[in-house]
User: Fold these one by one.
Assistant:
Number 1:
Amino acid sequence: MAAAMVETPEDEVLMARAAWLYYIGGLNQEATAKRLNTTRARVNKLLSDARDAGLVSITINPANVGLLPVEELIRTRYGLDFCICTPALGPEKGDETDRILAPFAFRAVGAAAAAHLRRHLAEEPRAVIGTGWGRTLEQMTLQMAGVTAPGARFISLMGSLTANSAWNPFEVVQSLARSTRGEGYFLPVPFIADTPEARSVLVSQQSVQDALDLGRRATMAYISLGELREDCLLRRQGMITGDELAELRSRGAVGDTNGLFFDAAGRGVDHPLNHRTIGLGLEDLRQIPTVALVAGRAKLEAARGFLASGIVSGLIIDGDTALELAGSAPA
C-alpha cells in the first residue's frame, strides 16, 4: 500500500499525538478523539495514516510528540480534562533568564488559549465566556482576529474598574466582543472594595447581581494565576501594598486568581483582602468549566497550589513551567 501523504506539518503533529495517546497512552479511539478535540472517525484516519506513513512500527517516532507525555502526566496527576503545553524554550533557570523568556511565555500561552477558545466558540455558538485579567489574557485577545461568534457573550468574572491598561478586565472583555462581534458584559464595580461593608453594598446592586449570575452560567472560563512577589502585577498596579503582600505570605498564601488569594492546597486564606474582592468566588469557579492559564516559571508555586484545589478542569501552560511542574512532587 502506498504511504499516505501528509499535507501539512500540523497533520504530522496530530498523527504523532494520536498515535502516542492510542498506542502508548492506552486510550481508546473515543477517548483519543476527546483528548484531541476531534472526531472518532478522524482519529481512525490519523492512526491509519500514521501506520501507512511509517510513523508507527514497534515504537512511535517521537519527533512530533513534543511535551505530550508531560501533558498526560500533569493531566492525570491533577485530574484535569486536558492539559496543553506550549514548546519549552530553554533549560536555563534564574531570575534573569525568566525575565527574558517571560514575554515569549505570555504570547505562547495566550495563542494556545485563543486556539482553545476558537474551538469552543465553534462548538457552542451561544457560548458564555468568563474572563479574568492579566497579560496572558491580553495576548489571548490579540489572537482572535477573523473569528465570528455573534451569539457569544463575554463576561468579566471580577470587578472591572481597575487601572487603565490593555489587560484590565474591561478591556479584555471588550476586545473579545469586538473581535468576534459578540456581546461584552462586565462587573461595574472596583476590583477590590475599600472595606467589607462597602463590598456588601456594591454587590447588592442589581446590575452587579445580574453580571455575577451571567458569570455563573459560563460555558467556559479563562483565568490567569498570579504569583505573590514584589514585582507581581498586583503590586505594580498598586492594588495591594507591600505590607499586605507580606501579610498574605505569612498566612500561607502562594498566589491569586482574580484577586482571590489561596494557599498551597488551593484554599482561600483568611485575610481582609479576600473579604473585599468583588467577583466570582473560588467555589463559583469550581461549578463552571474553568481553564487556568500559566505563563512563566515565576508562577510555578501558584500553579501547584491552585491545581491542588481541584477547581480547574483544564490547564494551558508554557513548556518550561510544565516541565518543572511535572518534575515536582504532587501538592
Number 2:
Amino acid sequence: MELLNTVLLTISITLMYSAPLVFTALGGVVTQRAGVDNIGLEGMMAFGACGASIVCFFTASPWIGLIAGACFGAILAVLHAFVAVTAKGNQIISGIGINFIGAGVATFLTRYLFKGAAQSNSTIDYGIPKLFELLGIDKSKSRLLQSAEIDITILLAIFFAFIIWFVLYKTKTGLRVRACGEHPGAADTLGVNVSLIRYVCTILSGVLAGLGGAVTALAISYRYTPTVIAGQGFIALAAVIFGNWKPIGATLACLLFGFAQALTVVMAGIPWLPTQILAMLPYALTLLILVIFVERSTPPRALGQPYFKGQA
C-alpha cells in the first residue's frame, strides 16, 4: 500500500509540474512553426507569473489571475514580434532581451506594490481548485485519493495540445502557419500574409508562456518570487526540440521533465542523497536529452530568418 501511495504521489506531482511546461512548450511550437524563434519564453513566463500573482491577490480570483498572466505574456510577445517581424531584427538577441525585461519589470512591480518586497503576497487562499474538489469528491477518507490528486491545469494543457495539433495538421490555417516556417516566399506567392501569421503566432506563444507562468505561480508556488520560474522556460524550449517541433511530442517531453522534477520532491527524504544532486536533476536531464536528440530533430527550415516581401 505504501508503494502504491508513493507511485500515485509521484504521478500527481509529475502532472502538477508538467502543466506549466506544456503550456510554454506549446507556445514555442506555435511560434517556431511559423518561423519566429522565441527564446524569450523564460521572461514571458516570469512576467506572466508576476501578473497572475498580483491580479489574483487583489481580485481573490485565480481564474482572473490566469487571464492576467496570459495577457502579461502577450505584452512581451508583441514587443518580440515587432523586433522579429517588423524590424527584421535578430530574434535570438530579442529573446535574450525579453528574458531580462520580463524578470526585471516583474521584480519592479512586486517591489512597488508590496512595500519593497521582491515577492508578491501569498495567493494560497485563492488557489486553483483540484479535480476532486471540483467534482465534489471527499478525499479525506482515503489515502489513495489524497495521493492521486490531479491539478485541472494539466487537463487544460493537454486539451490545448490536442487543439493546437488539430489546427496545425488538420486545417488550412495550420498549413499556412507551417508554410511560413518552411518556405515563407512560396507562401507569400500563394497570397499568405506571412507577417500577419508570424505576428499572431508570436503573440500566441506569449499568451501560452504567460499562462504557463501563471500556473506556476497560482498552482505550485502560490506567489511570485524572482526564482519562481528558475529555468522552466528553457526546459520548455528543450521539450520543443525533443518533441521535434510537434505539439504532442513536446507535451510528452514535458511530462518527462515533470517526472524528473517530481523525483526531486519524492526522493528528498532519502538521507544519503544530497539535496543539491536532486535539485540539478531536471536541468541535467535537459542537457542530456539535448545532446542525444538535437541532431535527430529537424527544425522548420526558415526558423529564425526574417522575411522580406518578395524574396524567393
Number 3:
Amino acid sequence: MFKAPRGTADILPEEQVYWRHIEGKAEDTARLYGYGRIDTPAFEDASLFTRSVGEGTDIVNKEMYLFKDRSDNELSLRPEGTASVCRAYLEHGMDNLPQPVKLFYFADIFRYERPQAGRYRQHHQFGCEAIGEGSPMLDAEVISMALNFFSSMGLMNFSLHLNSIGCKKCRPIHMQKLKEYYDPLKKGLCEDCLIRLEKNPLRLLDCKKPGCQEAADAAPKSADFLCEECHQHFQSLIHYLQALDISYVLNPRLVRGLDYYTKTVFEIQPLEGGSQSALGGGGRYDDLIAMLGGKPTPAIGFATGIERIVLNLKSQNVVVPGPAKPTLFIACMGDAARIEALKIAASLRDANVSVIVSTGDRSLKAQLRQANTVGATSAAIIGDDEVKAGTVMLRNMENGEQQEIQPEELKRLLSSQQ
C-alpha cells in the first residue's frame, strides 16, 4: 500500500481551514504594506542556490534535491524562496522599476532533513522581499509587517530576536576572532562544527547541539566588530523599532542559516520552544543581487513556514473560521426527481447558491441525515408528487418546518440569503 514519502504530508479537508485562514491573512498583510504577488518555478538551475545560499551551509551540503534533466542540466528543487525571487527580479528588469520592489510569494520548499514537528522535507512558505532600498527604516517596516501578520491570525506569546552580523567589510574580523576562540575547543565540537570552523565560522553560532551551544554562548559577538556603517544602521533600526513600540531581544547568537545575509537578521520565536521552533525570520541581503550578476542592490525579506504556523494556532487554541457550509441539500426519490434535482441545482448555482444533490438510492431518512452531516441549512425534497406538481418541499434543517414552494420561489429565497 502506497504512503506519502517520508517528510511529506497530505493536507486533508479538515486541515484546509487553517491553511485558508493563514493564506488569507498573508495576502491581506501583503496588500496593507504594498506587496505584489510573484510565483517562481519549483526547480531552478542548481548553481543559483549553491552560489547564493552558500557552499558552507547545511542546505547546500546536505539538503538540496539535485537532479539532471534529459539535456544534462543540473537542477535543484527550490530549497528556499529568496534566491528565486532575486533571479526573477534581475531576469525581468525589475531594477528599472521604482525601488524598492515589494514582492510576496507562497512556495513549496524542498529540503532533505530529518522530519520533525513543523519541519518537513516538502514544506510551504509565505515570504516577502523588498528589493532596492538600504534604509534601516525599511528593516523596521519589514519586521513590523512580520509581527502584524502573526498577530492578525490570533497568535500570541512570541518574541522578536534581533542581531546584526555586519557586512563584507567588518565580518571578516569577527570570523577571524571566532576561529581564534574555537581553535582550542575543537575536541568538544561536533563533526559538522569542525567543518564549519574551516568553511564558515559564523555557522558555529547556529549549531543546535548542546555541547556546541555552550561554546557558542561565550563566543565573540558580531556587535563588537561592526564597522561604523553597520553600527549606525543597527542603532537606527533599534530607534525605529522603539518608535513603533516594538520590543525585542538582542541575540548575539542569531545568524540565520544562509550565507547571503548581511547586517540585520531577525527571528520571531514562540516564548516556549526557542529557536528550533521559530515561527519565521529573515534579514537583509545587500550583496545577493550582485552575487547573481546584477548591480549592487540592497534588499531585505522574511519568510515563515505555514506548517509551523498551523502547529502554533492549534497549540494556542486559536479558533479559525470554519469551512463554508452548503446552503441547500436536495433529497430526491425516483428517476424523474433526480432529473428535476439536477436542473434546480444548476439554476441555483448560476445564482451563486451552494448546493449538494443526493446522487444515490438511499432512503429519504438517510438523505436528510446526510444533509445534517454536511451542515446544510435547508433541504429541498423532491419525489413523484413534487415532480407532478412542479414544486419542491423546502425543509428548515434547524427546526424541521416544511413548506411547499415553486422552484422559482426557492431560487429567489435562497439567493437573498447569500
Number 4:
Amino acid sequence: MKPRRTILIHVSKGGAIKRTHSVPLVLSLAAIMAMALAVFSGFIGYKLHLLRYDTSRIDLMKEKNAEQAGTIKDLSKKITALDEELSVLKAYNRRLKAASRILLDHPENMMGMGGSDEDFSHGSRGVSVLPGRAIDFELDSHVERLGEDIALEQEIAKNLISEIDRQKSLIAHIPSLCPSQGFFSSRFGWRNSPFSDMTEFHKGIDIASLESTPVYAAADGTVSDYYSSESYGNVLLIDHGNGIMTKYSHLLDSSLEIGRRVEKGEKIASIGNSGRSTGSHLHYEILINGVNVNPLRYMLK
C-alpha cells in the first residue's frame, strides 16, 4: 500500500476542518509548477521593467532630438544670414574692384570659399540621418569656414578701400583742372615769339582773360614759392608731390604764404599783366621731375 499524506485545511468561518489526501508525486508536481510560475512571473516582471526603462529612454531621446532639431533650426537661420552677408560683401568687393580697376596679386588665393545654406536650411530633417556629434561637427565646420571667409573678404575690402583712397589722393594731386577761365592765346611747344621774329619753345600755355579773373589750384598741393621776376612777373609755385609741380605766372597778386596747403579748385591768385606781357593773361606750366610737359594733356575740364 502506497503511503499517503493527509492535509488538514482549517476554514475560519464555522471552525470546520477539512481533510484531503495527496500522494507525494502530486505534491512534487504542484511544487514544480509553483516554482515555474514564480520564475515566469519574475521573468515577465523583469521584462516589463526593462520595457518601461526603454520607453523612458526613447521618450528622453525624442525630447533631446526635438531640442536638438530646434537648435539646429536656429543655427541654420543664423548661418543662412551669415551666408547672405558674405554674398553681399563679396558683391560689394567686386563692385569696388571694378570701380577702381584694381588687380590684386593672386586674387584667386584671396577669394573666400563660402558654403551655401542648403545643408542647414531644412530644419530637423537631417536629425535622423546624422548623429549628434556629426551634426555638431558639420555646423562647427560650416561656421568656422564662414568666419574665415568673412574675415578674408573684410581684409580684401580693407585693401580695396585703402587702394581707392590712395588712388583718390593721387588723382587729387594730379593737376587735371584748368586753372582759370578764358581762351588759349598760346599753346605748349614751338612758336614765334611775340616780342621778336625768332622761334622759341613755349614751356606752358597762356590763358587770356580779364585782369582780376580768379586763378584756381589745378590740384591739391603745397605752396612752395612765390616771387617776382622780370620775365614772368608775379610767380606762384605749388608742389603736388610725386615730383609734380605747377607754375602760375603774370599774376596780379597772391596772398598765400609759402607752406600753405591748398585744395584742387581753391582760389590761389588773380590774373594780371605783371612781367613781360602783351596783355592780361595767365602763363601756366606743369613740371614733372623738373621737366615741362603739355598741360593740356592733363586737363579733364
